[in-house]
Amino acid sequence: MKPPTLRDVPAVTRAVAILRLLGRSDAPLGVNAIARDLGLVPSTCLHILRVLADEGLVAFDPRAKRYTLAVGILALARSALSRNGFARAVQPELDRLAARFGVTAIGVEVFGLRHMVVVAIAHAALGVRLHVDIGSRFPALISATGRCLAAFGGHPWDEIEERFRRLRWHDAPSFDDWRAEVETVRRTGYSLDEGRYIEGVTILGVPVTDEAGRMPHALVAIGITEQIRRLGPETLAAALREPAAQLSGTAIP
Fold this sequence. Notes:
single chain, 253 residues, alpha+beta, Arc Repressor Mutant, subunit A, Beta-Lactamase, six-stranded antiparallel β-sheet, two-stranded antiparallel sheet, 10 helices, 47% helix, globular
């Protein structure tokens, strides 16, 4: 018997889409709004929401008739993070980087060309902080980390280009310029995004590669552009590459 594909279990993909939509929303949502946003039949959407509510993953306000994420999601997230070997291994290094350079230091896990998720973070003890949290989710090819993924992810260029053209930047590079930057990343081992993704913000990323030389994780430093210029991008890159090299090529459970 042929194993099921994603198309064979649409209820699962719809349920995940609902959870992600509720996670992005700043306010509770009603059935019709959720169904409209996701292109679902309202009755189907309601059935899935009721199952998610029974499982404690969404909460329903009977007076407002609106849904939000429930605390059951937190239990799943904590369980996942507690078993994430990369997050455990990298946290002390991120703490040291944040304290030494006054940057926000993060560890991300990459999920193909779809997205990357913050699994570990250390904030600088400064008055200005950039809003990034555990569980924050970004397009896989965006910014400095995206250039690292294109350089070390082993993905074909036609797929990379198709994903690249969906990205939203503050100041988007052309694909040809971006691809040239990716080739530079292959040579230098790090990527620098100076205000391209977010105005006034510099993001520096280095890959953490597996035994096959591909990139399932990355280390990232984020700071105000003038701050990173004062520190020296090469100095910061060298400080990131050291723990990345220690973690690369090892089996991380």
